[in-house]
């Protein structure tokens, strides 16, 4: 299967976050013509600093991380398009028939599709501090920032209550802010809360105070109290970017994630899903691993050689004219790339 068989691309990746870009990195470097279509934004782009990614230091923003990744993937020969994928349609009963990927402006025929569209966190009404300056979504990423600091957890469900109790591992000053909403946590969670030193603040937030550098300093509440915080976490759930998922009628888990196997395969043969769209921890290194897994698996499915005994019987032996089995464009890019075996390490003499 290749672009020589009438496909526009071997692989179309829908979504340009860490998971999707890593899939594209692997498929491109493993000689598959790849297109990334990205609508922009996303959770990674919101990050003011990058945490928990080994080798990437704190001062790297999410936008800087993604920009570097896009340039890297394009440097290996992948194409990148800013746009919104409206639909992905199977073109036959077999994955080898490919898929039609439609945007508002273009249509592509692809051998395989990787969905990496993620989700968006739900937010309550303002006042709220700036994201990354007192407002955070990921305890695994940001709890370290608030060791021995006063923090809040905002929400009225089981997840919010449990995160508030978890934060006691890092600080002894934790408030659970329900903002006037009736708690919906379970009786079991209520009993646990009673036996943990978490202050439940039920009043609505009336105002917010910030420092000169934009960080949250305190919330003022409708009952008149003012409580200081260095930051905290929103726990209001999330909405999957699942328009394409619904169109393909992919199997979902109970919480709405796309069900996948260990290699990112979905219930539709030839369609993969990676990153926040799938079950598991929402962490960049995990998303990258899922993207790599999917990319390698797609390579194994689509690579031309070795031909199996059945293929040799049908198609005959591999000839000199059959190899190498990558497009001329990818081959030319690889030969010119600085990572190529014969790329000059110093400027040539003139």
Automatic annotation (TrEMBL):
Known InterPro entries for this protein?
FAD/NAD-bd_sf, FAD/NAD-binding_dom, Ferredoxin-NADP_redctase_2
Give yes or no: UniProt keyword Flavoprotein.
yes
| Entry-linked Pfam families | Pyr_redox_2
UniProt KW keywords: Flavoprotein, Oxidoreductase
Domain of life where this protein originates: Archaea
Q: Name one GO molecular function term.
A: oxidoreductase activity
Q: Where is the FAD/NAD(P)-binding domain?
A: 9-291
The name under which this protein is listed is FAD-dependent pyridine nucleotide-disulfide oxidoreductase
Q: Which organism is it from?
A: Natronobacterium gregoryi (strain ATCC 43098 / DSM 3393 / CCM 3738 / CIP 104747 / IAM 13177 / JCM 8860 / NBRC 102187 / NCIMB 2189 / SP2)
């Amino acid at each position: 299967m290749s672009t020589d068989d009438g496909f526009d691309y071997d692989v179309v990746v829908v979504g340009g976050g860490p998971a999707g870009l890593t899939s594209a990195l692997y498929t491109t470097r493993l000689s598959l013509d790849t297109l990334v279509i990205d609508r922009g934004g996303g959770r990674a782009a919101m990050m003011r600093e990058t945490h928990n990614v080994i080798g990437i230091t704190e001062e790297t923003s999410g936008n800087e991380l993604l920009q570097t990744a896009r340039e890297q993937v394009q440097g290996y020969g992948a194409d990148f398009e800013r746009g919104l994928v409206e639909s992905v349609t199977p073109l036959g009963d077999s994955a080898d028939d490919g898929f039609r990927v439609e945007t508002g402006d273009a249509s592509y025929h692809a051998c395989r599709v990787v969905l990496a569209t993620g989700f968006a966190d739900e937010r309550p009404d303002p006042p709220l501090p700036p994201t990354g300056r007192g407002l955070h979504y990921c305890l695994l990423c940001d709890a370290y920032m608030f060791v021995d600091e006063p923090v809040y957890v905002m929400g009225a469900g089981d997840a919010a209550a449990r995160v508030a109790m978890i934060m006691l591992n890092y600080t002894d000053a934790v408030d659970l802010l329900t903002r006037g909403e009736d708690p919906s946590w379970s009786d079991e969670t209520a009993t646990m809360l009673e036996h943990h030193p978490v202050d439940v603040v039920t009043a609505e937030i009336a105002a917010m105070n910030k420092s000169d550098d934009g960080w949250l300093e305190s919330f003022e509440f409708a009952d008149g109290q003012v409580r200081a915080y260095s930051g905290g976490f929103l726990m209001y759930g999330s909405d999957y970017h699942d328009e394409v998922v619904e169109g393909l009628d992919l199997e979902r888990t109970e919480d709405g994630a796309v069900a996948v196997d260990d290699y990112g395969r979905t219930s539709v043969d030839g369609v993969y899903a990676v990153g926040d769209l799938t079950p598991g921890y929402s962490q960049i290194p995990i998303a990258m691993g899922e993207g790599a897994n999917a990319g390698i698996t797609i390579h194994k499915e689509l690579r031309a050689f070795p031909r199996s005994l059945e293929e040799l019987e049908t198609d005959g032996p591999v000839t000199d004219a059959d190899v190498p089995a990558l497009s001329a464009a990818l081959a030319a890019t690889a030969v010119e790339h600085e990572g190529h075996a014969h790329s000059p390490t110093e400027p040539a003499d003139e």
